[in-house]
Amino acid sequence: MDSEDDFNSSQMSEDDFAQDSDVEIDEGKDAESARSSSCDASDTWTVDSDFDDDVGFESQDKDIKPNKHAYEVDFNVFEPSQIQASQHKQIAEVSSILVQPPEATAILLRHMRWNKERLIDQYMEKPEETLESAGLGQDAATNPPKITKIQGFCCDICCEDGPELDTFAMRCGHRFCVDCYRQYLYTKIKDEGEAARIRCPGDKCNRVVDSKSLDLLVGDDLHDRYQELLTRTYVDDKEKLRWCPAPNCVYAVECAVKDRELPRVVPTVHCDCGHYFCFGCSLNDHQPAPCSLVKRWLKKCEDDSETANWISANTKECPKCHSTIEKNGGCNHMTCRKCRNEFCWMCMGLWSEHGTSWYNCNRFEEKSGSEARDAQAKSRQSLERYLHYYNRYANHEQSAKLDKDIYLKTEKKMQQLQSSTGMSWIEVQYLDTASHALQQCRQTLKWTYAFAYYLARNNLTEIFEDNQKDLEMAVENLSEMFEKPIDQLQGLKVDMMDKTAYCNKRRIILLNDTAENLKQGNWEFNVALS
Amino acid sequence: MAALPKRIVKETERLSKEPVPGISAVPHDDNLRYFDVTIDGPSQSPYEGGLFRLELFLPDDYPMTPPKVRFLTKIYHPNIDRLGRICLDVLKSNWSPALQIRTILLSIQALLGAPNPDDPLANDVAQAWKEDQSKAIETAKQWTAQHAARPTA
C-alpha cells in the first residue's frame, strides 16, 4: 500500500504543479485535482471576446489535451457585465447588417431569441412583417421620440391637462404624460419583472418600448434593474448558457453540451463562486450518473425509500398470493385474508404440515416451508437490492453533511494547530485540502450507488464496483484520520497528504472509466436512458 | 385614505353623466373605489332579459393594474367560475392603463354575448358547452331565469 501511495502522490504533485502554473492564485482551490484544465479559458479570456467564437476555437483545438480527463467538459464562466458586453457586441454587429438603430435591433434579436441567422434571413425576406411581429414600426430608423409639451393635451391615464405637462409617445403616437409613462414602466419592471417585451401603455398597441425611450424616461435604479432583467432573458434564451444555481451567485456558465447528448455525457461545471453543478439539469454535481438516471433515482427515493424500509422490516408476503402482510399480534398461525392460505409466520410453511407442534415452529427443514421461503426471498430480492444501494447512497449523503461540519471546524483546527505546534499557515493547508477532497469524493461515491442500482450485471459492472470499493476505502481511511485529536495531526501530515492524493486519484480513475464507457455506450442499464 | 386620484373622479363623473346603455356602476359612499355594477344580459344571448350584479374594485395602483371584477349573480358561462371570477384577457395580461371602467364593463358584456369554451375557467361548463351546445345554452337560460330575474317594481 505504501508504495502505491507514494507512486500516486508523486503523480499528483505533478498534476498540482501543472495546474498551479496556469491557474492564477485562487485561494486554495489550485491544489484541488478536479479543477479542470478547461477552467483556463475562463481565466484568460477578455471582456471583448465573443464567447460563441471562443468555444469554436477551443473545440477545434487538439482533441487530446494531456491534462484533460474524460469526465470533464469544456466550459466558461461569465459575470453579468461580460454577458452584457457580449449582447452589445452582437447587437452592434446585426445592427450594421440590418441598417436599424441598435435599440431596434436589440428588440428584433430578443424577439428571435438571439438567433442571428434566422433574424437576418427573415428580415431580408420580409422586413415589414418581421418588424411588425417584433413590436416595432417600420419607421424605427427616423427621428427618435422626444419628451415634449403639447397644447390642449389631456393624459388618458391620469386625466391631467395643462400646457406645462411633459408628454411622451413612441412612434405609434399613443401619447401620455411623462409621470404616467414612468409609473407604467416602474410597475412593469419592478412589480412584474418584465423587460424584453414591455408594450406601449396604449390599448391594444403592440409597440415594444425600446431601451432608448426607456433611458429618456427612467432613472438609474430602474435602468439597472431593466438591464438585469434583459440579461436574464438573454441567458434563458441561449441554449448554451445557464445560470449558476447557487444562492446569490450572479455568474452564468457557458457549455456546448446539448440536451440530446446527455445520455452520453455528464457535464459537470465549476462556477467561479465555487459551486459544482451539472450543466444538463442544474442539480448539484452528480457524476458519474447521467441526468436521466439521477432524475429517476431521486423520484424513486422520494416515493419509495421510507416505505420500502418499513415494508422490509415489518412485513412478509403470503407464500401463496404474495400479498404483503403485517403481523400485528396473535399467534404464528396466519390466515391470509385475501387467499385464505394458512401458513406459519415463522417458517412460512403450510400450517397443515405443522401437526401438533403449534406455537413452536421447529420445522425449518420441511419442504413446503423452504420453497415458500425461496419464493419469498426472490420477491424480496428486488426490494433488498434497492435498499442496499439506497442505504449506501443515503449514508454518503449523511457523511458528506458531517464532513461539511468538519470542514467548518477545519479552519479552527488549523489555527489551533498553528499555535500549538508553531507550524505556519501554509504548512497547515493540507487539512483544508484534505477536507475538500473528502467532500468531493463523498459526493461522487453517493452517486456511484444510484448509478450502480441501474447497472446490469456484467464484467464492466464488476470493474466499476472494484473502483467504487477502492475509492470507498480510501475515503473512509482519510475520514478516520481527520477525526484524530490535534496533537496527533502534526505527525500525520505526510500520511494525510498521501491519502488525500490517493483519494483524488481513485476518484479520477473511477470517473474517467465511467465517462469513457458512457461516451462509447458500453454500459448496460436495466432501464432505458431517455 | 389618500385623496382620490383625478382619474377616478373623472371616470366616476362620466359614468353617471353619460351612462353606457345596459350598464350601471355606482360607487359606495364610504369607499369610492368600490362599485356596485349591474349589466343587462345582451340580446340574442342565453342571458337576455337577465340583470347581472357584479362588484368592481379599483386597487391602489389603478390604473397601472387592472380593476378587480367579480360576478355576484350566479351565471352559467364557460369563462366565469362558481365564485364569479372572470377569465378575460383585458383583466389580466392585456390590461392597458388607457383602458377604463366603462371599457372593461363593455368587454364583460361582450363576453356574455360570445362565450369562449376553448379558453375555459369553469371546466365543467366548458365541457358541457363543447359536447352539447344547445343543451348548455338551455341551462344558461334556466339559470338566467332563476338567478338573474329583474326585481318586479
TrEMBL record, chain A:
List the catalysed reactions.
[E2 ubiquitin-conjugating enzyme]-S-ubiquitinyl-L-cysteine + [acceptor protein]-L-lysine = [E2 ubiquitin-conjugating enzyme]-L-cysteine + [acceptor protein]-N(6)-ubiquitinyl-L-lysine
Stretch list, region Disordered: 1-52
Q: Which UniProt keywords apply?
A: Metal-binding, Repeat, Transferase, Ubl conjugation pathway, Zinc, Zinc-finger
> In Gene Ontology terms, what is a biological process of this protein?
protein ubiquitination
User: Which residue windows does the record flag with biased composition (Acidic residues)?
Assistant: 1-25
Enzyme class, top EC level, equals: transferase
- tRNA-binding: is it a keyword of this entry? no
Kindly indicate whether the keyword Metal-binding belongs to this entry.
yes
Sequence ranges assigned to domain RING-type in this UniProt record: 151-365, 155-204
One molecular function GO term is:
zinc ion binding
What EC designation does it have? 2.3.2.31
Highest taxon in the source lineage: Eukaryota
**Classification via InterPro entries:** Ariadne, ARIH1-like_UBL, E3_UB_ligase_RBR, IBR_dom, TRIAD_supradom, Znf_C3HC4_RING-type, Znf_RING, Znf_RING/FYVE/PHD
- Pfam families from the UniProt entry: Ariadne, IBR, IBR_1, UBA_ARI1, zf-C3HC4
This protein is called RBR-type E3 ubiquitin transferase
TrEMBL record, chain B:
Q: Which UniProt keywords apply?
A: ATP-binding, Nucleotide-binding, Transferase, Ubl conjugation pathway
Any signal peptide, and if so, which residues? none
The answer to whether the entry has keyword Manganese is no
Keyword Ligase tagged: no
Q: Which residues form the UBC core domain?
A: 3-149
Q: Where is the active site?
A: 87 (glycyl thioester intermediate)
- GO terms for MF: ATP binding; ubiquitin conjugating enzyme activity
- Which Pfam families does the entry link to? UQ_con
State its Enzyme Commission number(s): 2.3.2.23
**Which InterPro entries does the record cross-reference, listed alphabetically?**
UBC, UBQ-conjugating_AS, UBQ-conjugating_enzyme/RWD
Task: Specify the enzyme's EC class, one word.
Answer: transferase
- State the similarity comment: Belongs to the ubiquitin-conjugating enzyme family.
Question: Under which name does UniProt file this protein?
Answer: E2 ubiquitin-conjugating enzyme
